[in-house]
Write a structure and sequence with these properties.
This protein is of the alpha+beta class. The protein has one domain. It has 3 helices and 4 strands. The protein has a 4-stranded antiparallel β-sheet with strand order 1-2-3-4. The two termini are about 15 Å apart.
Length: about 90
C-alpha cells in the first residue's frame, strides 16, 4: 500500500488497484484504520475517482469552478504514466 496523504492510500490485489480511505476505528484504543473505498482497473481510474471525491469535499461554489478544477486535475492525471498492478504489489 502506498500512502498518498493522511486520508488516502492506494494498493493492489491480483486484479485491481484499490483505493483506501482512513476511517475512525470503532475499537477502543485504536484511532483510525484503513478501509477499502473502491476497486479500479487502472491507476488513472483510481486517481480520477480520488479527484472526484476530493472535489466533492471542497468549498467550490459554482459549477463552472468545479468543472475547471476537475478538468485541470484530470489533465494532470492523464499526463502521469500508468502504473501496473504488479508495480503496486511490489512484483
Amino acid at each position: 500500500m502506498i500512502e498518498l496523504n493522511k486520508k488516502w492510500a492506494i494498493g493492489a490485489d491480483n486484479m485491481n488497484i484499490i483505493l483506501y480511505k482512513k476511517r475512525k476505528s470503532k475499537k477502543a484504543g485504536v484511532e483510525s484504520v484503513w478501509g477499502t473505498d473502491g476497486y479500479y482497473s487502472t491507476l488513472h481510474n483510481v486517481l480520477k475517482a480520488l479527484v472526484d471525491k476530493e472535489v466533492m469535499d471542497t468549498d467550490l461554489k459554482s459549477l463552472v469552478a468545479v468543472e475547471a478544477k476537475l478538468n485541470k486535475l484530470y489533465e494532470l492525471v492523464e499526463s502521469l504514466p500508468n502504473i501496473t498492478i504488479g508495480v503496486l504489489k511490489g512484483d
